[in-house]
Amino acid sequence: MKAVLLISGGMDSLVTTAIAAEKGLDLAAMHINYGQRTWQKELECFRLVCRHYGIEERIEIDAGYLSLVGGSSLTDHAMPVSGADLHGTAIPTSYVPFRNAGFLSMAVSWSEVIGAAKIFIGAVEEDSSGYPDCRQAFYDAFNRVIELGTKPDTDIRIETPLIAMQKSDIVLRGMELNAPFAYSWSCYKSGGRACGVCDSCARRLRAFELTGLRDPIDYEVRPKYI
């Protein structure tokens, strides 16, 4: 069975890739640049992950329209990237409006062309930043959209193996699968050394702290989050 992996270059998509590889699926990978601040580093990580898992069928897409739309501190440099808020309930400025719907649409299109039956995405609901397009209900609804919007003989399902996991459990699962965390990137602000203080860095650092393991990537600062 062929599966398309949406690989951002982040920790969650890395572990999702490791899970899909363990299943022995025929893997194809998609990476989408959308004008985010760290796009070059994320693209580099995508290529490293593909090389590590021997994924030769891959596609890199430019979705720069999301930076033109704006509304997110990831794509609009006039908006400051929010600092860590591990207990907040408000949707942070890093939310890119309806981004995952666009990503999934591209992945479905490519899957239908190459005959893939699965789309893997590293969405996390319980320990995410509160993004509405990271909820299980969203993916359930999108699977229905795929049924309605593709050819009658097309059978494609979205897989979200991390959706109900905590970040620390994702780290442990990645370690079990020997996922190369050094090839992943989570920082929202920097493509050199990770800042250590944005919300994404904080969640990643806290996850490693909770497992008693050290994150292998370089940080400008490593605050304690537990």
How many β-strand stretches?
Answer: 5
Widest sheet: strand order?
Answer: 3-2-1-4-5
Q: Low-confidence stretches at least 5 residues in length (pLDDT < 50)?
A: none
**Number of separate structural domains:** 1
**Helix residue percentage:** 25-40%
Quaternary structure of the protein: single chain
Q: Count of helical segments?
A: 7
Q: What is the architecture at the second tier of CATH?
A: 3-Layer(aba) Sandwich
Q: Give a short account of the largest sheet.
A: 5 strands, parallel
Order of helices and strands: EHEHEHHEHEHH
CATH superfamily: HUPs
- Under CATH at level 1, the class stands as Alpha Beta
Radius of gyration: 17 Å
> The CATH topology, please?
Rossmann fold
Classify the secondary structure makeup into a structural class: alpha/beta
Could you walk me through the main structural features you see in this protein, from its secondary elements to its overall organization?
The structure is a single chain. With 226 residues, this protein is α/β, with parallel strands linked by helices. The protein has a single domain, classed as 3-Layer(aba) Sandwich (Rossmann fold). Helix content is 37%, strand content 11%. The chain is built from seven helices and five strands, in the order βαβαβααβαβαα. The protein has helices spanning 11-22, 39-52, 65-69, 99-114, 136-149, 167-176, 199-211; strands at residues 2-6, 26-33, 57-62, 118-120, 157-159. Strands 3-2-1-4-5 form a five-stranded parallel sheet, with helices on both faces. Helix 1 (11-22) links the parallel strand 1 and strand 2 (26-33). Helix 1 (11-22) crosses helix 6. The longest helix is centred in the middle third of the chain and has 16 residues, at 99-114. The radius of gyration is 17 Å and the shape is globular. The protein starts with a strand and ends in a 15-residue tail after the last helix. 45% of the residues are buried. The mean pLDDT is 96.
